[in-house]
UniProtKB/TrEMBL annotation:
Keywords: Signal. It holds the Pfam family SBP_bac_8. SUPFAM superfamilies: Periplasmic binding protein-like II (SSF53850). InterPro entries: SBP. This is Extracellular solute-binding protein.
């Protein structure tokens, strides 16, 4: 028989009806009964609808449309805040098929048992994933700073097919398949700051009183705050990603003091909120994410993603499977996982400033000048255009922070869930409501 790829079988389906004899149908029914599992009818792939939950950062209409065109099934999505996304993943497992979340959320989500382990043997490009996720190292073998926070490699694998326990070493069962990640920092408008921002500590500079903002997601916002107070010499943390109660008490007191002094203009949960704050000029300096900076630039406003001297806060996002997926819907979900690593998505996200989990495949979908600018830190040989056709950077500009290796070698902590997570949320809420 000729060989078909799994994707071809699912998309095209198998000829049935006249080619199947009554005996074959009976045999199929017997096999199904004896195996205890359903027989998947691949002709029904067009009838599959996968329900996504995720943050607004990655729930982008153009991505869903392209996936539907390439894969032949339907996708619906809900764009949520990080906290809402985690809550639904934990408490409403029947309301979604695909969990699009961050690795730092997994110590909260995985113990619920609502995500089924991913068989990495079904992921064709798994060996192309950057080692940050699988071993915690650079592609050359140099270690990445994984000592502070929840580095993705710490929660990438599970101990077994039915396990909810993380494995410190690679196994055949993954929690998520990564597709994007970045090194986060502060964003600012140089026309409003009047100077180059070089330190996290400048977020508390009285010069910008009433013109700053910080991210209102407790697990992430507290780490941005820790970068600030540590830069100012106000505190020193053993692990910014896993603070003690005493450290949480002290940093909360500092944050409340800054808030009461009028340092903050606002707090934001979704990146579009941070875009609006920056575009309107309400803030000059704030916690930001790469797509937010991209959107500000696309509106013709100069916004810089600051390469701060103290380093970056790292994060990674991926796709997980609901425990309720089975049969043809599960097959479709694995097709989507493979699609995310094929290259188109990596290139699409790369044009917003993210990095692909499989750069080798993304490179095939990027022009040489795009790859040189976004990954190699070289000056743009032509105008850089985002995925929506808007010019982000003019010819001759250089990416903030330099090359891929330069940026990730300066990560000093990772988004995380702390041992004192409940106490953190309590203290963070005290700050926000003060």
């Amino acid at each position: 028989m000729p060989k078909f790829t799994r994707r071809e079988l699912i998309r095209a389906g198998l000829a049935t009806g006249a080619l199947l004899t009554a005996t074959q149908c009976t045999r199929q029914q017997t096999t199904q009964q004896s195996s205890g599992g359903p027989t998947v009818n691949t002709n029904q792939i067009k009838d599959v609808t996968l329900r996504f939950i995720g943050t607004g950062v990655s729930q982008i209409n153009e991505i869903a449309q392209k996936a539907q065109e390439d894969l032949g099934f339907k996708i619906t999505s809900r764009a949520l805040s990080t906290d809402e996304n985690n809550q639904i993943a934990i408490t409403q497992p029947k309301s979604y098929d695909i969990f699009d979340g961050e690795y730092f959320s997994l110590p909260l989500v995985v113990p619920s048992g609502n995500l089924q382990p991913i068989d990495v043997n079904k992921i064709k490009q798994f060996d192309k994933i950057v080692p940050y996720f699988t071993t915690g190292k650079f592609k050359e073998g140099a270690p990445v700073n994984t000592s502070q926070g929840t580095a993705p490699s710490k929660v990438m694998f599970l101990k077994g097919q039915d396990s909810t326990e993380f494995s410190p070493t690679p196994t055949d069962f993954a929690t998520l398949i990564p597709f994007q990640y970045n090194a986060d920092t502060l964003g600012y408008r140089p026309d409003l700051t009047g100077k180059k921002i070089e330190s996290w500590g400048e977020l508390f500079d009285p010069k910008y009183k009433g013109k700053t903002s910080i991210l209102d997601i407790s697990s992430i916002g507290i780490m941005d705050a820790a970068m600030v107070v540590e830069a100012l010499g106000l505190m020193k943390f053993g692990d910014k990603g896993n603070m003690t109660r005493e450290e949480l008490d002290k940093i909360t007191a500092i944050l409340i003091e800054q808030k009461k002094a009028g340092q903050f203009r606002a707090f934001w949960k979704a990146f579009d909120e941070s875009v609006n704050l920056m575009v309107s000029g309400e803030v000059a300096l704030q916690s930001m994410w790469s797509p937010a900076v991209t959107q500000v630039k696309s509106k013709g406003i100069n916004c810089i993603y600051a390469p701060l001297k103290e380093g970056y806060r790292g994060w990674g996002g991926g796709i997980g499977l609901s425990k309720n997926l089975s049969g043809i819907a599960l097959d479709a979900a694995y097709e989507y996982l493979n699609w995310t690593l094929d290259g188109w998505l990596g290139a699409f996200l790369g044009r917003q400033g993210y990095y692909s989990a499989a750069p080798e495949t993304a490179k095939k979908f990027m022009k040489p000048e795009e790859w040189a600018f976004w990954y190699e830190g070289k000056a743009a040989s032509t105008d850089m255009v985002d995925p929506f056709g808007k010019t982000l950077e003019k010819k001759g500009s250089v990416r903030d922070g330099g090359s891929f290796e330069e940026r990730f070698s300066k990560i000093v902590c990772w988004n995380s869930v702390m041992d004192e997570q409940k106490y953190l949320v309590q203290k963070w809420n005290e700050f926000i409501s003060a």
